[in-house]
Structure formats: structure tokens, C-alpha cells
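Listing 4. Sequential folding, example run.
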Amino acid sequence: MDINLSLSADTIRLLAQKARAVSTSLPDSFEDGHEGDVEFDKDTLSDAHSHDGLAEEENDDMSEDELRELIADLNVDEAAELVAVTWIGRGDFEATDFDQTVQEAKERAIGTTADYLIGLPLFPDYLEAGLDALEL
């Protein structure tokens, strides 16, 4: 298959790696909101371990911000290609229809590409599957 990307496959792999780091750092959420609840007993809440937990969280890794910035820095063609690779990886389009998929991504563009892609629960998996389907 002869695909000419504005983005290199290595760049897409980097984005997939960053997306995977983001997806593992996001808190799990559950529909009824109780499975993720944590209960502490009164011994756990003692003053024996006094520190400001929020101060530690300020040093949280900036993976999501970095990923958003990397995606925001893409030009229109690159962003459409990234969406197309994602859609192909998700199985919405065939790899042989890559150029058509890129065009479709440009036509459907609403809002920021970063918000859309990061909002996909399996975004890094879709990117990797798309690269595989495109033989890149």
C-alpha cells in the first residue's frame, strides 16, 4: 500500500505513546458513581501522616497537556490524517480508502481535534491499529 503521510509514522507512534500515558493517568469513572468510592476507617484518617496531598498532585505529569499541545500544533492536513488513522484503526474505514477518509475527516471537523481524539476511550489502540492496517 502506498500511503503518503504529512505526519511520519514515528510521530503518530509518539502520539499513541503519549495518549496511552494519558489514558492510564485518568481516573476511572463508573456509571452509578459508587464503584470508585474509597472509604477510610478512622485509623487511616489519623494525624500520624500529616502532609498536604494537593501539593504532591501539583507535580503531576503533564502528559495530557503535552498531548493536547502536540495535536494543536498540527496543521489541517496533519490533523485530518491523524483522525483518519484513528478511524481506520477503529474499523470505521478501510485502509485502502485512506485519502477519502482524510477528506471525510476534514469535512466533519468540528471543535478541536485534541478534544475529539483524547475523548476517545481507546484512542492509542486505534492509532496503533490504524498504523498496522496502513502497514506503516
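-- end of first protein; second protein begins --
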Amino acid sequence: MFRDLIAEMDTAVFDSLGDQALIDGQPAQGMFAAPWLQPMIGKLNTGLREPHFVVRDERARGVIKNSRVSVAGQGEYSVVNLEPDGSGLTVLVLRGIYD
């Protein structure tokens, strides 16, 4: 029951605040962040310095290192690491592709 409630909440948050992307050409909804684009809020330090795209675990299935991620309005990236957080979300750590 708790997992169902969290899944509903995740869906609402991703639908309202999420970013559209393509992962290996397939649509994906997630949360994009790049440290150099974030406003400074106090002295919060997340430890993540690379750009990253957070997706639900189900969407992360099949994503591998070097998968290509295109985030609408934010550029092209390659996946350098996948970090499941244990809460149903996976962080795709990215590196910019500069053709």
C-alpha cells in the first residue's frame, strides 16, 4: 500500500515538474539537473557535480553506460553511471556530448 502511494506521488511530481527527454531515441520523463544551472540555496552540497537525469526504476531498465540522453532544451549527454537510490528512482549520471 505504501509503495502504491509513493508511486502515485512520483507520477504526480514527474507529470507536473518533470523534464521531457529521449533515452536512446525513446521518450522519457524525469528530472534533469546540472549543478552549474542550479540556483544557490544556502550551502547545500549534494556531492553530485555532473549533470544527471533522475528517472523511475522501470524507465531505467535497459539503460546502459554510453546510452544517449537528449534533454529538451538542455543538450545531448551520454550516461556514465547508473545509481539506483533504493526508493524507486535511478539517477543517470551524465556527461555532455559535444559534436
